[in-house]
Structures are given as structure tokens and as C-alpha cells.
Amino acid sequence: MKNKLKTYSLDEVTDKFIGNKGTAKRVDFENELRLDLIGDAIKKARKERNLTQAQLGELVGVQKAQISKIENHLTDARFETILKVFNALNTKINFNVKLLNQNLSLT
User: Fold this and answer.
1) Helix, strand, coil share of the chain (percent; to 5)
2) What domains sit in the chain, N to C, each tagged with a CATH number?
3) Which one, out of 13, 43, 50, 55, has a CA that is 20 to 30 A from the CA of 101?
């Protein structure tokens, strides 16, 4: 008789090892993942435009090291800097904002 392995969803594993949704540890974890995605998107766009980190830094007005830190998720860059980077890369960005426990009416 073969032993069957039990499978778990990503949410189940994250709940167990990081913490349930809404806990401070889980919020920090999820925010860090989002920063990883931003860094990866910047790196991909920079490479598609055949720019070095130094060249992108010059366009943005920051040092090469700052671009490297953003791409490699080593720093919490200022939102303004992130916007400047995407602008320098001539990219369109979208942000989704969700207000929890609140109804928002635009009428």
C-alpha cells in the first residue's frame, strides 16, 4: 500500500508558518512580497530598454546603488522614487487601493 501525501494550499501553509491574515507578521510578509514584485518589474523594464543600473540611476537622479537596492529588494524605497523610476522607464503603472471595512462612494 502506498502512502498518499496530503497536499496543502498556499494559504494554508502561509497561515501555519507566517500567521493568519490580518496579523502583523502576515501583513509584513505580504508587503515584502509586493516590494519583490516591484523590484522585479523595474529590473525587467530596465533590461528591456537596454539600460544599466547606472544609466537608470542617472535618469532618476539617484546613484546606481539605489537602483540595485530597489531591484534586489534590499531597501524600502520612497514611493516618490519608485514613481520616478517607472517614469524614467516610460512605463504605465496601475495601483489598486482597497479600503477595508469601509464603503467608498464616488457619487
Assistant:
1) 55, 0, 45
2) 10-88 (1.10.260.40)
3) 13
Say if CB 55 and CB 83 are below 8 A apart. no
CA 94 to chain centre: 13
The string of pLDDT tens digits covering residues 75-86 is 777 888 888 999
Query: Cα–Cα distance between 39 and 61 in angstroms, integer?
Result: 18
- Cα–Cα distance for residue pair 40/9, rounded to 1 Å: 25
Using CA atoms, how far apart are residues 12 and 104, in angstroms rounded to an integer? 31
Give the single-character DSSP code of 1: -
**Residue of 56, 44, 65 whose CA lies nearest to 84:** 56
Q: Which three cell numbers stand for residue 89?
A: 522607464
- What pTM value is reported for the model? 0.61
Yes or no: say if 63 and 57 are a contact pair by the CB < 8 Å rule: yes
